[in-house]
């Protein structure tokens, strides 16, 4: 039994520490990206890695994240970590594993998007199980992530918390029609959580910002009208992220030009 416990402990260390530390360059900034296995998250990993950043890329099922794993093999300072953002114990464990690693940019990208069957139903067709999941993933999980990794962000040079939001959650600029109840509500909740958090982060010198990525083609083989590709969206968002100052703390910004989006 003792030997089995030792094996389990060693396995836990392998999952939560040693290989990751070896891959990070202490002389370069570090970004942590959730939902990094595809779409916008994967593109953030690709572009930040190309700029020489350390990238801690998380995925719910890294064993099936073929594109992300291939990118990590090509990029010396990209490490892949398992993370289901609804698993708060796992978030805490990951934060503990990186307790001494400054994180310049904490980038919360993982989300449930309105691709499920009932997403565009009127009120009588709302799937309340999906509504609860959307709230848990899109609103509560980013707040937990910010809570757990606040010390690492505060210890960094850039001190930025970036949350992927959506104009769909904006009263000012969201669609004026009954659609995407669960998604829109969860993103509006995220906006309020981060707006509220910004009153704390400003005292720590941390910039907390929500970003709208625009309408992006994230499903392979599917082209939405007037949508842009992840490469364009991410390139423009990184430019906005680069230019952030404490004056932007608590704002909701457009991907293209950094314009402030109304709540």
Topology of this protein?
Layout: H1 2-16, H2 18-23, E1 30-33, H3 39-50, E2 54-59, H4 66-74, E3 78-82, H5 88-97, E4 105-108, H6 128-154, E5 160-164, H7 181-201, E6 207-212, H8 230-242, E7 251-254
Helix pairs in contact: 3-8, 5-6, 6-7
Short description:
The protein has 263 residues and is of the alpha/beta class. Helix content is 43%, strand content 13%. Helix 3 packs across helix 8.
The SS-based structural class is alpha/beta
Might you state the CATH topology name? Rossmann fold
Shape: globular
**Helix run count:** 8
Sketch the major β-sheet. 7 strands, parallel
Give the strand line-up of the largest sheet.
Answer: 3-2-1-4-5-6-7
What is the first-to-last residue Cα distance? 57 Å
CATH architecture: 3-Layer(aba) Sandwich
E-strand count:
7
The radius of gyration is 18 Å
Look at the structure and give the mean pLDDT.
Answer: 90
Characterize the quaternary organization of these chains. single chain
- Beta percentage is 5-15%
Give the SSE order as H and E letters. Answer: HHEHEHEHEHEHEHE
Low-pLDDT parts are 4-19
Query: How many discrete structural domains?
Result: 1
The helix content is 40-55%
Top-tier CATH class: Alpha Beta
């Amino acid at each position: 039994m003792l030997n089995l416990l030792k094996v389990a402990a060693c396995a836990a260390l392998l999952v939560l520490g040693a290989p990751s530390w070896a891959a990070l360059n202490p002389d370069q900034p570090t970004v942590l990206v959730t939902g990094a296995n595809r779409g916008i998250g994967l593109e953030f990993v690709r572009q930040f890695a190309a700029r020489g950043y350390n990238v801690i890329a998380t995925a719910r099922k890294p064993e099936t994240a073929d594109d992300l794993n291939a990118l990590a093999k090509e990029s010396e300072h990209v490490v892949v970590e398992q993370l289901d953002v609804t698993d708060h114990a796992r978030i805490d464990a990951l934060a503990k594993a990186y307790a001494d690693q400054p994180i310049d940019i904490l980038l919360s990208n993982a989300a449930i998007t309105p691709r499920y069957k009932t997403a565009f139903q009127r009120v009588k067709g709302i799937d309340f199980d999906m509504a609860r999941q959307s709230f848990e993933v899109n609103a509560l999980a980013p707040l937990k992530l910010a809570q757990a990794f606040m010390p690492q962000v505060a210890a960094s040079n850039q001190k930025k918390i970036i949350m992927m939001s959506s104009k769909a959650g904006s009263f000012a600029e969201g669609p004026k029609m009954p659609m995407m109840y669960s998604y829109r509500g969860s993103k509006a909740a995220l906006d309020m959580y981060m707006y509220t958090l910004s009153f704390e982060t400003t005292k720590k010198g941390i910039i907390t910002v929500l970003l709208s990525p625009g309408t992006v083609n994230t499903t392979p083989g599917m082209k939405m009208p007037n949508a842009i590709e992840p490469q364009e969206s991410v390139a423009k968002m990184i430019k906005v992220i680069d230019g952030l100052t404490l004056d932007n703390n608590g704002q909701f910004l457009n991907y293209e030009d950094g314009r402030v989006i109304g709540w």
